[in-house]
Every structure is written in structure tokens, then in C-alpha cells.
Amino acid sequence: YLGVMPAYSAVDDALTTKLVTFYEHKKDSSVPSHQATILLFDPRNGTLKALLDGSVITAKRTAAVSAIATKLLMPASAEVLCILGAGVQAYSHYDIFTELFAFKEVRIWNRTKEKAVKFAAAANGPVQVCSSAQEAVAGADVIVTVTMATTPILFGAWVKPGAHINAVGASRPDWRELDDELMKNCVLVVDSREAALTESGDVILSEAEIFAELGEVVKGTKPALPEKTTVFKSLGMAIEDTVAAKFVYESWSAGN
């Protein structure tokens, strides 16, 4: 796939387009499944100001949005973090989640165990490598799914009541990471209703009811409900790339 994600923010005085390629590698590859470049323009006259590494920005901004959702939706006494998947997004989520939150235990599971072992070895703290997704999920307070799964790998029967899940993978309308039981018995928060109802297989195929957009929870127009089992379905929005790219460019410019 080749995706084109243009966005303009009058508030931030920023205009960008992200070009992202997505290749579903049938076999393990040293080439990432997602590769991206962000073009930053001068919104006053359309001049190209910078080319930025969209892969790095995508990884960082996706994890940052998950962290915002987690801060609002996770249970008050969250101690156990579980990450399903060991790709780029697993690393970025681990970095920001262990920086912002005080988890006492971190677990990881990946379909290819060698990648999970490699992840644990590279982590800044102790990470338990689990032999199954069910083992990793059992009793976890916060779960992050960042896989290339096309059928569910996380089941409601496994999930601790009151846990918070960040569902980041399964970005196609016919792909799933979460099963119907979990989707239909959670408080579902999305980044964009419009996107979730056209792009997310987890939402479309389960016919789960969307409770709120994350922006509504941030602004307080919808309650957070951290005492409930919550799911944040993340698909990513072009405006996130725009704001992040402007921030990176201004930081770089200040350094020069």
C-alpha cells in the first residue's frame, strides 16, 4: 500500500503530507513493514521547508497518543504492563510507558519468540518473555497490542476486569487483534470515529459501540471511566504527524 496523509493546522500554523508505504512481509525481513516520509511546507506560500523521517515520528507520536489514553483510562493501581508484538511500535511504546508510568512488571509476547528475547535484551529494565499471549495477558493492568495479526490474538476471557488495552495493530477493515467478547464488553474509545468505522476491523466486524473519541475524554466532554475495562483503538491521524513534524523542525531550527 501507498498512503498519502495530508493535514493542515491553522492553530499550529503547520502544513504537511506524510507518504507511507506498507508491505506485509510474508517472511521475516530486515525491512520494516511501514516506512514513511513527512514533507513539511510553509503554509503561507507552499514552499517545501523540510523532509523528515516519518517512520521515527510515526513510532513516537503513536506511542505518545497511547500514553495519553493510558494516563486517562488505566486503573488507578496499575502495576503490570503487557506488550503483544515486538516490532518498532513495541519499542516506542515500551520507552514512553516505562518513562511515564511506574509499572512493577513488564511482559512481552511475540509470535516469533526470538524477537521477544531480542526486545527484552535491549530493554532498559527487566522484561519477562512469555511463551503465549494468554500467559502474558493474565492479570495485566495495561495491555498494548502492536502486532501484524489479521485474526484475534487477544481474547476477552483472558483480560483482567478493569484493565486498559491500547489496540494499535489491525489497521485494515478485515483485520483483527481483539475478539468480539472483548470489543463488546469494553468502554471503546477511538482517535477518530470516522476512521474507526471505515478502517478498523476490530470495530467494524465486532459491531462494537464507540463510547467516545480520545479528544472528547481529554476535553472532559466524555468521562474517562478508568474503573471499567477500556479499549483505545488507535489508527493514527495525519494531524498528529503535522504537529509532531512542526515540533521536530522547530527544535532542530533552534539548535542551529
Share of residues in strands: 15-25%
Q: Which strand order does the major sheet show? A: 7-6-5-8-9-12-10-11
Q: How many individual β-strands?
A: 12
How would you classify the helix and strand content by structural class? Answer: alpha/beta
Averaged pLDDT: 95
CATH superfamily annotation of the largest domain:
NAD(P)-binding Rossmann-like Domain
Number of helices: 9
H/E element string? EEEEHEHEHEHEEHEHHEHEH
Poorly predicted runs: none
Task: Give the overall form.
Answer: globular
Kindly identify the CATH topology of the largest domain.
Answer: Rossmann fold
Question: How does this structure look, described?
Answer:
The structure is a single chain. The chain is α/β, with parallel strands linked by helices and 256 residues long. It has 2 domains: 2-56 and 239-255, ornithine cyclodeaminase, domain 1 (2-Layer Sandwich), CATH 3.30.1780.10; 59-236, NAD(P)-binding Rossmann-like Domain (Rossmann fold, 3-Layer(aba) Sandwich), CATH 3.40.50. It is 35% helix and 25% strand. The chain has 9 helices and 12 strands. An 8-stranded parallel sheet has the order 7-6-5-8-9-12-10-11. Strands 1-2-3-4 form a 4-stranded antiparallel sheet. Strand 3 (34-41) and strand 4 (48-53) form a beta hairpin. The longest helix has 20 residues, at 54-73. It starts with a strand and ends with a helix. GO terms for molecular function: pyrroline-2-carboxylate reductase activity; thiomorpholine-carboxylate dehydrogenase activity; thyroid hormone binding. Its EC number is 1.5.1.1, 1.5.1.25. Homodimer. Binds the thyroid hormone triiodothyronine (T3); T3 binding inhibits enzymatic activity.
